[in-house]
Amino acid sequence: MNEISWHERLLGGFRRTSDRLGENISGLFGKAALDEATLDAIEEALIASDLGPATAARVRDRLAEERFELGLDEPRLREIVAQEVAKILSPVAKPLEIEAFPRPQVILVIGVNGSGKTTTIAKLAHLFQEQDYGVMLVAGDTFRAAAIGQLKVWADRIGVPIISGKEGGDAASLVFEGVKRGTAEGIDVLIVDTAGRLQNKAGLMDELAKIRRVLGRLNPAAPHDVVLVLDATTGQNALSQIEVFKEVAGVTGLVMTKLDGTARGGVLVAAAEKYGLPIHAIGVGEAVDDLRPFDPSEVARAIAGVERIGMK
Ligand SMILES: Nc1nc2c(ncn2[C@@H]2O[C@H](COP(=O)(O)OP(=O)(O)OP(=O)(O)O)[C@@H](O)[C@H]2O)c(=O)[nH]1
Prior knowledge:
Bound molecules: guanosine-5'-triphosphate
Largest sheet: 8 strands, mixed
């Protein structure tokens, strides 16, 4: 890979969280033993570092158990934070598997404008192509001509077929056509772009309900996945998006994008802790191969800043 490596971008994505952790825990070391007051201070420092109350409580419990009568140092504390964050992230790390029978597996992709939805669809398509699956796209975000055009450009670029219609057209009938053609052509995965607008909840619900109804006639198990794309740069706002989309759209999993362009990636831990939804992948750039499987221990170490100790 050219310029910056994937791993460095990942570290960058979690830099602010690990920086804040450093600021909050400095000054807590060098005590002979861990008394209650120090444990309280560490727990508060972790909450203030964006890691969420459950992670903070887990770390506190671990420290209380192990006692550290000889005192605790920063590298050891960061290591424990990494271990406890990994325990929260591990159960939600689940790549999207193509296992639907009959084929195709239908993946609806939702997310607010600008979240990186279109790019993520292209990246997912590319990932599946690399695994030798036959992929087809459906340009179901028919609200804007630009959205249709952009998805077509991606489809051309990566060489996958796409079903599209006119602006303002009926998304459900495109999805119907996609499943029929996909079935006839032996396609494994149908990835459907949708108009994931939150401004009009009722409209979105109606549209998704219609897509579900139409799909159900062809295959009652479809859609197999409803993937919400979240922009990491929005920080805590991503949590409220999960809340709403979960209720409105029956989200089955998440992809978090733009981790390269922000330092607010700690929200991943809060999302995992609060909602327990599978995290399928993370986006770290605009190129088609910038979507990576979500590796919980690598992410946990980046958040805790384990590798940065001694680099200051
Ligand atoms: N740095 C970075 N940029 C990304 C990433 N994913 C998407 N983008 C960029 O974010 C912008 C919005 O991405 P789109 O995929 O167009 O987002 P969308 O949600 O489909 O947005 P609309 O087309 O406005 O509905 C584009 O400029 C993308 O190149 C990522 O992981 N990292």
